[in-house]
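Service request form, structural biology core

Requester: graduate student, group of Dr. S.
Request type: structure prediction, single chain
Budget code: on file
Notes: please return the result as structure tokens.

Sequence provided:
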Amino acid sequence: MIKVVVLGSGNVATHLCVSLEKHSRILLLQNYNRKGEKIANCGVTITDQPIKIVTADIYIFAFSDDALTTVNTEFIHLKGLIVHTSGSTPLEVFSNFDRCGIFYPIQSFKKNIPVSFSDIPIAVEASNESDQQLLVRFAQSISKSVYVLNSEQRNLLHVAAVFANNFSNFMYTQAEEICQSNAIDFDILKPLITQTITKITTSSPKEIQTGPAIRNDQKTIERHITTLTDQKKIKLYQLLTAAIQNYYE
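Core staff response, request fulfilled:
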């Protein structure tokens, strides 16, 4: 049985605690967070004092990227495998530890939105082979998809995730605002969004691109631009249209 301590109380830490507490092959010993806050829907023991963190096989630091720099000094007394959950922070952030690694769940988390870790891909990396095997074994106990990636690969994956998730969600926000400002129910677009997401599970996104930009339908493009009244949305529409046309030229 792998003994684990989760450090942090944010979105990732909360979902990790809730998930790990349920696993028979993992023993979630404790959660550390600075405020001593109880983790919602989880009965794990809490501490707000680094010196009172118990001995474990793996310590998962689900901190913000900026806060990870404090680990080298405040938690230097910990002797197990020290890992973080960041997509973009390199392994070298734990320069004062001989045993360190990365446990990166490739998902966007919100505390109030349930997730199933079995369906979440996890990227792992460790400073030595034996700890990498331990991380792989740990990750495979909660997820069906585990990948060993180095820091450079993981950072590029994080960039790709920003394009696929954060940027696309911002486009949904723009679409919702256009609908709301014109008394149109945004729900009308949800089947279209769902269908697009479904199509990329079986086809390359490059192959399923549609719309006036790729068709070079200038009349429609001009009509859209003159219809929009928000200058920021006009600039965004023009930028994306030009990007699509240049890519498929």
